[in-house]
């Protein structure tokens, strides 16, 4: 090959980073790939917009067909975002025999298995490292580095915005709304932060990671999702007293062939490697039967880290082209998905209750837990300023999701409970 | 291919782990590789020894030629250790067109470039993930995941024994000798711990990581090595007071095209991600121009983690065989090695001195530092029980290795200094 031509869909911050890395590291690319690599055409919305990356105006186009129908373009890099149109473009590219690199988690979470199947049918590569970990090469580690092991647990802090917010809330004792505003002004949260703070972004990434790590098609709908917007300073503070750090944790768990996947605010025991992952950093913790504990840590987002992952994928695609093996390394899932029923999804839980300060209340409450097979690891009762009320914090041992839901229903019916202030998943410590 | 036959050199703890994983994960291997994988012959020293892994006695041999000359054996897995004989076996295997997976860091550190060249000439694969990180897929991450970035710094806790000892010394305030004995009785240190505690094991791994990360041939001799056997509880305690954790840190640093590689006991600032890596765990921290900070964490050794890395390498070798691209993905180094001169190797240093408690001593000492362009970040002076003496702790700003050596020479000549108790590298904090 004399040179390789890339078609780039999108020229936002990640797209600009990709252009810069391809230019700046041309020597390294030639060394690795064997020929020059150039970005031939770029799909943009507005060609006349001023940009902080130097690109020849002639490479810009607003017409995707100019790229998809160009037979000299070998590889499509998709960094435009969006789902339905983007999916159509990538399917067309694959049908035309073009290899694809994408950074699009929404697309991969919703249509990953369809796109991977299309790639396989057309003998094309589809790489998507940047869709999950920003700069963390986690897809590669799951696909290759830990390929001979049986993974039983993947836990991740996979959203930088929420980790930044929870770190600040924890360090400064500030309320959620105030820290969210600070994160927005620093560029760590978007104007509409819903997708991040409600856990949807993390859920998409966990669906992708679980699919790959467990070799089965996990859909976004299979992920139980709860966001961080109702977390209070009080719960963070009580968590600290009990030895826990509040984190938004994605968990994918496999017992035999049955799995559960969730994204939930979690009180994580301080000694867990994920508990010390701060600010906008991400990390994925993987437990394999043979390897034991491993963890991958790095920037979760950002223009250059994400662009690095995109270009590293590009290098793999180009090596495969040179070797004539494009699309031949894709694996279909080994297992059929089986989700765990509520009766066998186990976790510990933290309950904070405001109760009437009367004789027998504690006994009434604990009877409900006992009835549903839940025993306690930690109990804390504190008087409240508001007279006649007490605050009770209960941390259970492992309890099934079914029992947990029944306990809540029963607590809600108890006249002596003024309010269930909060409930969180707890991870770590004893049984 | 109907099935693939492996020749295993060595059946110690790692070799037994490899046999077990290949047996237990046969389904996964068939899914990934497309055919059964079996261990056909195993080189051992004593075939009649009783073993905790079930192998057919007929597969055992004491004659390496039975394996190397068997044309039906496609892949050699080397987990026997040793250097000269082992190198000869692997070179013979490569010449005979057999692909190789090795877990041998001594061999790769000393003869890695020669073996990789032989693999390339013979169109064979040579994979060596298990030689560095035990269960951490770091070789893969450097080779592929971060391939498009320019790495400027690799820092690693790459020896489990020393990290275990330093963690215990730090947590318990116990002296080195006592903790070493404890580590030996727990199986975390060998009867002759020299290679671990004197930093040689870590130096071998750093030579391998730096060679790959910087794409140049770094030899073991290029690594400046200092072990942990003279670390005292006092220095760990003072380090803590100043906000540092004592770790044996391997550092590979690139400025433009010049590099430095060392393994030294280091007072690492508590906020550094490596500072919280405890006990026998290992971690490698990588800084790339584009990606920023990433870290890979996991078990540094152990039979099953290392065996997992070996079998994951085996899967890659087998996939390459299936695709007909064995040996075609090896890269020769892109750069010629250039080592930094002492004048441009910079670091901060911690000095602990016992000095005569006289007028002008402090001024005499600091004058020596000033003469060699070293200024101070932290200063601590404490009275000593022994009358007439004081203890001084100095932490410098960045100082060249040349100046550092000159400072020591000058301090040693100063009559008012009773003893230079200890000197350590310091990492983190300000300039």
TrEMBL record, chains A, B:
Q: Which InterPro entries match?
A: ACT-like_dom_sf, ACT_dom, Asp/hSer_DH_NAD-bd, HDH, HDH_cat, HDH_CS, NAD(P)-bd_dom_sf
Q: Which domain of life is it from?
A: Bacteria
Annotated Pfam families: ACT, Homoserine_dh, NAD_binding_3
Q: Identify the enzyme class.
A: oxidoreductase
Would I find Protein transport among this entry's keywords? Answer: no
The record's keywords, sorted A to Z, are:
Amino-acid biosynthesis, Methionine biosynthesis, NADP, Oxidoreductase, Threonine biosynthesis
Pathway given for this chain reads: Amino-acid biosynthesis; L-methionine biosynthesis via de novo pathway; L-homoserine from L-aspartate: step 3/3; Amino-acid biosynthesis; L-threonine biosynthesis; L-threonine from L-aspartate: step 3/5
Q: Which SUPFAM superfamilies match?
A: ACT-like, Glyceraldehyde-3-phosphate dehydrogenase-like, C-terminal domain, NAD(P)-binding Rossmann-fold domains
Q: Where would I find the ACT domain in this sequence?
A: 350-425
Task: Give me the reactions it catalyses.
Answer: L-homoserine + NADP(+) = L-aspartate 4-semialdehyde + NADPH + H(+)
| The family this protein is said to belong to | Belongs to the homoserine dehydrogenase family.
UniProt-listed PANTHER family: HOMOSERINE DEHYDROGENASE
Name recorded for this polypeptide: Homoserine dehydrogenase
